[in-house]
Amino acid sequence: MKQSILFMTLAWGLARAALSLAGEPLPTSADAVQATIDKFVRASSQTNWPSKADARRELTSLGVAVVPMLTEAARNHSEARVRRSCYELLTTSFAGDERTIDTLFRNGLLDQDPGIRYHCAFLLGDLKVQRAEQALRALFEGSTGKDDQFLRFTLAKSLAQLGKADVMPVLIASVSDDAYMSRHIGNIGLKALSGKSLEDFGGYVYGEGAYVSGGNEFKMKLDALTSAERKAGRFQAATAYLKWLKTERPDLYRSVNYRPNSRKAAAPQ
The whole model's pTM is what? Predict the structure, then answer.
């Protein structure tokens, strides 16, 4: 028995040495992963950004071995800021891992934190995860309240990136909105479906002087005339886009004007 154990120990040591000589990464122990995850979680629950950055680098250096524990923390940690940090790390460093994708649409879209729901809704479209369509669609159809508008715009953008043209009316509303981020995601959706956005018409720039910093939107202070001119430019670009769409992409133009309840409403009683 002792000889068998000695042989297995020796074989394991030789295998590790061979990996090292070959330049291959050595397997990471579960304890090492857990310790690094714990360090990252502690740093994420605080406001010490340097320590969080260090923990993030250390965690990323361990490779895909961290994904199971990281997805577990993303799903179940009690603090929203920790869950948010886990989702951000998963999508920036391990977006190609199927376990990350599953966690995004099975858990992230349903998270209590609106920032996490938005993050996952946005990324699932960017990553073109076709199997997330049903989850995106369910949340899209349920996001009808006034407070849900931005999430609904984001979901429409992602469904557009999956090739779903029925969201065109929502994208047009999004690019017409006064909020910069709403216009931003709406134009991404239009570009994905039609190959053009409002910025392809008349020199229009959808930022209109606004910008985002630290997750917050800021607008330049403009006089009344300049503000009106920029809004006018927005709707002139929208008009030019729709004219182009009607001529060049009549299939998509029909989607813009489709109202699912219009036929029912027009039917004789």
Answer: 0.81
